[in-house]
Target: Acid phosphatase
Amino acid sequence: MATEARLLLLLFLTAAASAWEMNIRLPTERLAYGGGEAVVAPLIHALRPLLGFGGQLAARAGVACDSWRLAVEAHNVFGWKKVPASCEGYVGHYMLGGHYHRDSPSSSTRPSPTLKLAGNGKEIWVFDIDETSLSNLPYFAKHGFRTTLYNDTCFREYVAEGSTLALPETRRLYRRLLQLGVKPVFLTSRTEDERNITVTNLRRQGYSGWMKLLLKPAVHTAGELLGSAVAFKSGERQKLEDAGFTIVGNIGDQWSDILGAPEGARTFKLPDPLYYIG
Amino acid sequence: MATEARLLLLLFLTAAASAWEMNIRLPTERLAYGGGEAVVAPLIHALRPLLGFGGQLAARAGVACDSWRLAVEAHNVFGWKKVPASCEGYVGHYMLGGHYHRDSPSSSTRPSPTLKLAGNGKEIWVFDIDETSLSNLPYFAKHGFRTTLYNDTCFREYVAEGSTLALPETRRLYRRLLQLGVKPVFLTSRTEDERNITVTNLRRQGYSGWMKLLLKPAVHTAGELLGSAVAFKSGERQKLEDAGFTIVGNIGDQWSDILGAPEGARTFKLPDPLYYIG
Model:
């Protein structure tokens, strides 16, 4: 083969190889915070190459995975129990390849310009925890990106380790709001028996100074919690308003974090193609 | 240059050229329908090549256009007046390149399995018109894909031509529902003075047999309609329920089509990165 041809082929192969194996870390800010601990993003998963964009890959698999993901985010599909099996690769690449973080509303939109604050000390922002303030991605990456049914026992064991990771975009929003005098309130479907490990995990990941941490009562039978998430969360928001607080914002990864009055003056729906909570 | 190298280059250039100029038609079913007219999709726009996927292109332009689009669909950004200038190409390719149609919830999800019908003749499905039942894409393609401010005069002139096109996925849903005995109701922010041309346009595009066509009162000053779309549309839905009808479904391209009780038992949010109506 002539030199030029070999050179072109070499260039092509080099480009292909460079995309072949990437070890992915969660993008994490290396900031010192309250506890003085350094935040190090652990290695999660080695991705295989993504040749072609998501739609093409999905179409080959017979499911338009990016359309499915959009339907999830626009709340057109709901009550689903697992990610379509053919979308495991698509969802994995979406979650680990940077796209997920780029889609975070706290990175793609700017809350501050529309945020008119009274500065009266009664203004709060409601934060969901899982897949909003903390990410369980290391767990899901090990378990097929939720193409299998949810296993409550395994997941609770993982949560009990207290090793979930901060979502850097949410933590940035959290800290900015604290600076602006807005009080953070965590409102989560985690249960009261998980309070201690949740506090530990939040502190480890650089969250501090919250006003309240509201968890579900610890009634827990066969993976089912009493009452819907919408009823629990909107009820707790109502209590906060009844106590004289103004919910200037509300952020969560599930529509059940957002829907149900009072929603909050400004709402953010974070992407989550991994699971649905009604 | 050696033969092999020239051959490789030629192959590369051929592949590049094949993507270079594509004349795009809206995907339209060529079905005979009520009026017996054939539906022909007109040529809208010649697309320039899309090298790299949307995210890459957007990142180069300084705006993550696909993240912006997701934020629109998840209702994280609202009240916006125009598409970011750097996203014109991205939005154009999205709308004309097939992705938009693939994202239509009536093509990506199946309403029938979750649709439990009483078959009592009182079941209705609410359809929005613009960008839901009919598409104004030919207009927007000529006007920079809404990277410029909305011009009410020009747009109303276009609507008055009665030449907007059926969205084939919605028309398919519409016909399926008619077969199932569900009565279609059009509910639109178009005004009463546009009733005749709207009826003509809907018929031309293969819609027939609707129960009601509900338009806004023809009060129209400087492009502003009285009252919000949410108030108007939820009010009309309430009247329908008060009259004894059950809204088994509700489909629209704007969150203002969906939000506000009574929403309907099943809601579908169609993609729309072109404009926002609050």
Observations:
- The first strand of chain B starts at residue 22 and ends at 25.
- Chain B is about 35% helix and 15% strand.
- The longest helix of chain B spans residues 3-18.
- The radius of gyration of chain B is 21 Å.
